[in-house]
Specification:
The structure is a single chain. This protein is mostly helical. The chain is built from two helices and no strands. Helix 1 packs antiparallel against helix 2.
């Protein structure tokens, strides 16, 4: 099943914990990419934003593919 990626800006609570409620159609298992707020979309180039969105949309648990995408996302 292919779901639309969800992007949220959240603030951690006092114990540095974040809480996200998933919509039922996304399922019970997701991949989470965490970036500091200073690395928001406003500070990313168009290419970086595209690469990050493409990376977030990847639903397969493939370590080789993750390493390849990670190379481009992190520079």
């Amino acid at each position: 099943m292919k779901a639309t990626p969800i992007r949220r800006r959240v603030k951690a609570d006092a114990s540095h914990t974040i809480h996200i409620t998933l919509p039922p159609e996304i399922g019970d298992e997701v991949e989470v990419v965490i970036l500091p707020a200073s690395a928001s979309a406003a500070s990313l180039t168009d290419d970086e934003a595209f690469n990050l969105a493409a990376y977030a949309a990847t639903t397969e648990a493939d370590e080789q593919e993750d390493a390849l995408w990670g190379k481009y996302v992190r520079g």
